[in-house]
Design a protein that fits this description.
The chain is of the alpha/beta class. The protein is built from 7 helices and 10 strands. The protein is globular and about 55 Å long. This is CRISPR/Cas system-associated exonuclease Cas4, RecB family.
Length: 230
């Protein structure tokens, strides 16, 4: 990529913290949850309830610790040769030149989601949004997470007609093992799931626990869970 930029987010938001749900923010009057929660939802919705509604805290797993450390290493290496830029300036520049950025913050106050994109390629022809994962299997939960990043980005640049693609890459490698265009079908798919998530947080829908005992065995909330399948 021709230009490596650290893209700063906007501070022009009315943000409050939700009084009952840990990690939830109220932005411009609407509940707003981290996009990473979609990955947890695909694993077990009930663990969202235990962690964020009941406030149960556990030690991070080894996989979580390793993931955080590897993300930090990649970010530090990127920053060694990257320059700072505002989102608006970087986006305008990308209409003429190729832009590469990491850990770019996106927020969609309308849909109520926010998060940090692991890596984004912006070229005059297309936008590629990449989420790094420890393995090389495209789980539905991982796909949902990257589709939500695509949705948030699209709504931030509503007047742009460049093609947006979502991609999953094996962390620490160049192996992109899943990629799809963010088309109308994928947009409808992720909006449906986001609406379900808001239904959970608003008390309109129940948190459904996994029925997979193998997931329960690996879950860090196992000793606190009354719904486990083992």
């Amino acid at each position: 990529m021709e230009n490596k930029l650290i893209i700063k987010g906007s501070d022009n938001l009315d943000i409050q913290y939700h009084p009952n749900i840990k990690g939830m923010q109220i932005i411009n009057g609407k509940n707003n949850f981290p996009i990473s929660w979609l990955n947890t939802q695909g694993y077990c919705e009930y663990s969202l309830y235990l962690e964020y509604f009941k406030g149960i805290a556990t030690l991070p797993t080894q996989a979580m610790t390793t993931g955080t450390e590897e993300h930090a290493k990649l970010e530090d290496k990127f920053r060694e040769t990257a320059q700072a830029s505002s989102f608006d300036d970087a986006f305008e520049l990308s209409k003429e030149k190729e832009i590469l950025s990491r850990e770019m913050f996106v927020i969609d106050s309308k849909e109520g989601i926010r998060g940090f994109i692991d890596e984004i390629w912006m070229t005059p022809d297309e936008i590629v949004i990449i989420d790094d994962k420890p393995g090389n299997r495209a789980y539905a939960s991982s796909i949902h997470q990257v589709l939500a990043y695509c949705l948030a980005f699209k709504n931030m640049v509503a007047d742009d007609n460049r093609k947006i693609k979502g991609a999953l890459r094996q962390r620490g490698t160049d192996n992109i093992f899943w990629s799809e265009e963010f088309d109308e079908k994928n947009e409808e798919r992720i909006k449906y799931l986001i609406n379900r998530m808001h239904g959970l947080f608003n008390g309109q829908k129940p948190f459904i626990p996994t029925k997979n005992p193998n997931k329960c065995k690996k879950c860090r909330f196992q000793s606190y869970c009354e719904e486990k399948a083992i």
